[in-house]
Design brief:
361 residues, 17% strand, binds pyridoxal-5'-phosphate, 9 helices, alpha/beta, three-stranded antiparallel sheet
């Protein structure tokens, strides 16, 4: 953790967001002098012998850490998760797809699919400002795929299990990738932007089941066809080399720390600590339904009696070194994003802040 002006900063930013300190340092080192070759990673060819092993190692670590079965490819692309919102229907939708509407990102994904065919909203939690994950819906079997957003970064809800779908399941895991083991065999595709849990912005990851591709009749522009990037090992054109290198450093870090089960243990410990305080402290309340609470983005507000103290708590927490806890404008209050790299110590500092604020009032 960095110390500026003699004060520790606890980084709860929602995205771009905290990365392991080692990853920042290794990235900085690669910018200065990559692999001791006397040149920056920024000024060498992506096909040079020094960069050449980076993408295969990142791919291999993805497969190892998530226990990805045979028959799947991992690719790294520019454009962010938002580009995948249109690449998914381009590559997978012939006529009809179904979407679970759990908030802003799910809506944006669905909007793109509507450009290509019939995108059906199978269920929605809009009626209560997306504070829960809809259940008890039936997935139609005549659609090409079912799209879910496993972690709703803005509304603080999460689907923390791998659901069974009778049709190909596609998931946006931008903000919870590597926070829990995933049964990849249940998905046709998993994708996300890197800047929440993996790397700086500028790269997205796509895990795709090879035989789920090639089933649509439309012509796909070369760059938007997943097969182009699979066949070329994410090197069809110049890939975002620096974010991919940082992602590799994060993947190595996850492995060293004990892998995805250890990330899951830490996520649960952070969430228990913070939700425990939110539920205990009469000045605060959580916004998401308890059973659907996210481990990654913890949303809370001042309880009704203390509503007018919101700005005061914000200033108090900021004075104690908390960064990035302002809630998203669509729900207000506070959001503590607790991604993989966030130490428990940071959550403890926020909890101490909440306790002290309670004592002072
Ligand atoms: C941040 C986010 C996105 C958008 O990612 P970009 O890389 O900015 O396009 C999409 N989905 C989810 C769940 C997110 O958290």
């Amino acid at each position: 953790m960095l110390i500026y002006n003699n004060m520790k900063k606890y980084n709860f930013n929602a995205g771009p967001s905290i990365l392991p300190r080692e990853v920042i340092e290794q990235t900085a080192q690669a910018v200065q002098d990559f692999n001791g070759i006397g040149l920056s990673i920024l000024e060498i060819s992506h096909r040079s012998k020094d960069f050449q092993p980076v993408i295969p190692e990142a791919e291999a670590l993805f497969k190892e850490l998530l226990d990805i079965p045979e028959g799947y490819s991992v690719i790294f692309l520019g454009g962010g998760a938002s580009l995948e919102f249109c690449m998914i229907p381009f590559n997978f939708m012939e006529k009809k797809a179904v979407y679970l509407n759990t908030g802003t990102w799910a809506n944006k994904a669905m909007k793109e699919a509507k450009l290509f065919g019939e995108a059906v909203e199978i269920a929605s939690s809009k009626d209560r400002n997306y504070c829960y994950v809809p259940k008890n819906y039936e997935i139609p079997t005549d659609a090409d795929y079912f799209h879910i957003t496993t972690n709703n970064t803005i509304y603080g809800t999460e689907i923390r299990r791998d659901i069974d779908s009778p049709i190909p399941l596609i998931a946006d895991m931008s903000s919870d990738i590597f926070s829990r083991p995933v049964d990849v065999s249940k998905y046709a595709c998993i994708y996300g932007g890197a800047q929440k849990n993996l790397a700086p912005s500028g790269v997205s990851f796509v895990i795709v089941k090879n035989d789920a591709l090639g089933k649509v009749s439309r012509t796909i522009p070369t760059m938007l066809d997943y097969r182009t990037h699979i066949e070329n090992g994410s090197m069809f054109n110049t890939p975002p080399v620096l974010p991919i290198y940082s992602a590799l450093c994060t993947l190595r870090w996850i492995k060293e720390q004990g892998g995805v089960p250890e990330m899951q243990r830490r996520a649960a410990a952070r969430a228990e600590l913070l939700y425990g305080e939110i539920d205990r402290n009469k000045m605060f309340r959580g916004t998401a339904d308890v059973e659907d609470r996210s481990y990654m983005n913890i949303d809370f507000v001042m309880s009704d009696e203390y509503k007018e103290l919101e700005a005061e708590f914000m200033a108090f927490a900021t004075s104690k070194g908390m960064v990035g806890i302002k809630g998203h404008r669509s729900i207000g209050g506070f959001r503590a994003s607790c991604y993989n790299a966030l130490p428990l110590e940071a959550v403890q500092a926020l909890v101490d802040c909440m306790k002290e604020f309670e004592k002072n009032h």
